[in-house]
């Protein structure tokens, strides 16, 4: 009989199964919001750094992490904490995560270098045709985390994942 070794790599691996409730193609790991994992025997600590303080999905995500960890027989104590100590930024999204956003029809955020947010948003590449000839319709999409764009090339409206940093 083999026993699974529960370490932070293992926890990270199973948390890949926990998807963002708003964007089901991306895991919370690839979104970069799992900012710390500690394992002490059968006790597991997971720290989440939310993308936006106002994101309503926050409590849902905490619960999803708890529920997933609770399925592992070797884990007895689960602590999930949301912190605002660090600031999440869109550069924390992994390459796999950027691809997952694109698959969902969301323009992945550009890597920001400290310039103004609206500049970052202005020529967001279209997730459908890749054209940068796009117009920012609104910095606020259906949720705080999204922006609304319009592609002047393929004439489709699309949402962007709003870059923050
Ligand atoms: Zn387009």
Give the topology.
Elements: H1 8-15, E1 34-40, E2 43-48, H2 58-70, E3 77-82, H3 95-103, E4 106-107, H4 117-122, E5 134-138, E6 146-151, E7 157-161
The chain binds zinc ion.
The site of zinc ion has 8 residues, from loops.
Task: Please describe the structure with a list of short key phrases separated by commas or semicolons.
single chain; 165 residues; alpha/beta; GMP Synthetase, Chain A, domain 3; 2 domains; four-stranded mixed sheet; three-stranded mixed sheet; 7 strands; 22% helix; 22% strand; elongated; binds zinc ion
Explain briefly what this protein structure is.
The chain has helices spanning 8-15, 58-70, 95-103, 117-122; strands at 34-40, 43-48, 77-82, 106-107, 134-138, 146-151, 157-161. With 165 residues, it is of the alpha/beta class.
Plain-language structure description:
It is a single chain. With 165 residues, this protein is an alpha/beta fold. The chain folds into two domains: 8-82, Fe-S cluster assembly (FSCA) (GMP Synthetase, Chain A, domain 3, 2-Layer Sandwich), CATH 3.30.300.130; 105-161, no CATH class. It has four helices and seven strands, in the order αββαβαβαβββ. The protein has helices at residues 8-15, 58-70, 95-103, 117-122; strands at 34-40, 43-48, 77-82, 106-107, 134-138, 146-151, 157-161. The strands form two sheets. It has a four-stranded mixed sheet. Strand 5 (134-138) and strand 6 (146-151) form a beta hairpin. The N and C termini lie far apart (47 Å). The model has no long low-confidence stretch (mean pLDDT 84). It binds zinc ion. Zinc ion is lined by residues 126, 128-129, 131, 151, 153-154, 156.
């Amino acid at each position: 009989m083999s026993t699974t070794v529960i370490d932070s790599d293992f926890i990270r691996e199973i948390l890949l199964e926990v998807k963002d409730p708003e964007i089901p193609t991306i895991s919370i790991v690839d979104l970069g919001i799992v900012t710390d994992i500690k394992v002490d025997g059968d006790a597991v600590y997971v720290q989440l750094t939310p993308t936006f303080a106002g994101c309503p999905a926050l409590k849902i995500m905490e619960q999803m992490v708890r529920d997933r960890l609770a399925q592992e027989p070797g884990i007895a104590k689960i602590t999930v904490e949301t912190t605002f100590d660090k600031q999440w930024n869109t550069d924390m999204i992994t390459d796999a995560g950027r691809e997952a956003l694109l698959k969902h029809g969301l323009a992945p955020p550009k890597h920001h270098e400290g310039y103004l947010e609206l500049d970052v948003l202005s020529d967001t590449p279209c997730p459908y045709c890749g054209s940068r000839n796009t117009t920012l319709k609104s910095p606020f999409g259906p949720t705080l985390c999204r922006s609304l764009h319009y592609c002047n090339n393929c004439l489709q409206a699309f949402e962007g994942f709003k870059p923050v940093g």
